[in-house]
TrEMBL record:
Keywords: Acyltransferase, Cell shape, Cell wall biogenesis/degradation, Peptidoglycan synthesis, Transferase. The lineage of its organism: Bacteria, Bacillati, Actinomycetota, Actinomycetes, Kitasatosporales. GO terms for biological process: cell wall organization; peptidoglycan biosynthetic process; regulation of cell shape. It comes from the Bacteria. GO terms for molecular function: aminoacyltransferase activity. SUPFAM superfamilies: Acyl-CoA N-acyltransferases (Nat). Signal peptide: none annotated. This is Lipid II:glycine glycyltransferase (Peptidoglycan interpeptide bridge formation enzyme). The keyword Ion transport does not apply.
Amino acid sequence: MTLRLRTISREEHLAYIRSLPSASFLQCPSWADVKAEWRSENLGWVDDSGQIVGTALVLYRQLPRIKRYLAYMPEGPLINWFDHDLTRWIKPLLAHLKSRGAFSVKMGPPVIVRRWEAPTIKKAIADKTAKQLRDVEPDFYDPRADLVSARLREMGWQQDTGGGAGFGDVQPRFVFQVPLAGRSLEDVHKNFNQLWRRNIKKAEKAGVQVVVGGYEHLPAFHEVYKVTAERDRFTPRPLEYFQRQYRALASEDPNRFRLYLAVHEGEVLAATTFITVGEHSWYSYGASANHKREVRPSNAIQWAMIRDAFAMGASVYDLRGIGSSLDEDDHLFGLIQFKLGTGGQAAEYIGEWDFPLNKMLHKALDMYMSRR
């Protein structure tokens, strides 16, 4: 079977994504509207019969003062990554992007290489036998993923080991997920650790109510989000970013984006954004107040989202990124510790990869980003 790459319409792109069990929301056509500062293009691989068999949302970021671009495919493209002949997918892609003025290409193959169950990670932390997740024997390993990495290296791709030419948009390599397929809600709840179950009960007894908010509730979310940003020392995104995300994703599919609010005595104590594509649901952004933490709004809101993901037929609830460090003194350790309480799994993707079409410009951008 020969493959031909062409620009496709948003409608064709969305139809292909809807034919899949799941796909990253970062590869949906609507994501281009969220990333308004990037130019975008929808690409499709077409087989001999004219059927679309793979897609990519490409985001183009222009270099200052010259018409050359970084071409970025976050958590994509959506192709058959286990095809023994990856070049028939990648070669026409690179040629097309070069013709569009790209000097460098960044992509994030949605390929998982390892998984660790929560008890495995907890034991490694308790025994102090590992400093990093990779030091722990995985519960699942896919040798095909290492073959994908080897083939990419043979083609000249370079693995992004952190930072790199990502303009701050580099996606997490390690994520934490709660499998839902083939399970009951009772089983999911039973698999939470004792602290999580106790905190969910505390929130219920305290009268915490979790509600699905609308567009008009985004300012309330953003106020709590700014408190979280100050506490955790990161730069918050502006309210307009979340308003744009709500409009873009909800217009593509009414179930694509939801806003959750945990309310206690009329006050929003925690808030989250929730995204669904096919059978995959994500906890995307989270925020919590500094006070009334004893009523456990964060646990309550997570349990509400998991229940709703289950009701929507999701096979996985994804809590997104975690750090790979198992050192209790690491500043990201609290994140993995909180997510471990769900009894889910840590998963490692093969990471993001760069292809320098113009080595001089690619190196110059790398140097700029490392200094920034």
